[in-house]
Automatic annotation (TrEMBL):
Protein name per the record: Uncharacterized protein
Annotated region described as Disordered, given as residue ranges: 131-160
Coiled-coil stretches noted in the UniProt entry, renumbered to this chain: 67-108
Keyword terms: Coiled coil
Domain of life according to the entry: Eukaryota
Compositional bias (Polar residues): 138-151
Length: 160
């Protein structure tokens, strides 16, 4: 029994010693705010570097996104530019074709006016005068009216 009594006493003393050590540690331990500021003072350079690295990372991501959107927009504009250039080439080809048709029509009208001057008289002379003018809108409107009035009977002579 004596050994059980000694064990109880020793365990009791040990428990009291643990409580005293915890009180001492609690008394020496500063509050959370103070511990936090002490930790920040001690490791502040590391935290500042980490925050700067994070900022640089997000700035780089933003710039990469801008570059990507700019490249997409540039590609879109280039596609539109090529489409417009193709349309321009098509319009130039159509313009050349229409100019050739107009030239052949003028030649045909001149030829017809020369050959039928005897038959139609003043109308043929007016056609010649209109063809030699330099104003195309007047040529087109007046020539269209005169051609309707003086259509040759044989259409195989006109070139279209």
């Amino acid at each position: 029994m004596t050994s059980d009594g000694n064990l109880d006493q020793i365990s009791k003393e040990l428990g009291e010693a643990v409580k005293r050590i915890e009180k001492i540690q609690a008394a020496d331990r500063p509050p959370f705010a103070q511990r936090f500021t002490n930790h920040f003072r001690k490791h502040g350079n590391n935290l500042t570097s980490l925050v700067l690295a994070g900022c640089l990372f997000f700035v780089a991501l933003g710039r990469l996104d801008l570059k990507s959107s700019h490249q997409t927009e540039k590609t879109s504009w280039q596609q539109q530019l090529t489409a417009l250039e193709q349309e321009k080439q098509g319009l130039k080809a159509e313009n050349n074709r229409l100019a050739q048709q107009l030239s052949s029509l003028q030649d045909g009208v001149r030829q017809e006016a020369n050959t039928s001057a005897r038959r139609f008289g003043p109308v043929a002379e007016r056609l010649k005068a209109l063809l030699e003018q330099d104003s195309p809108p007047a040529l087109q409107s007046k020539q269209g009216n005169d051609l309707q009035n003086s259509q040759p009977e044989d259409k195989s002579q006109t070139m279209i």
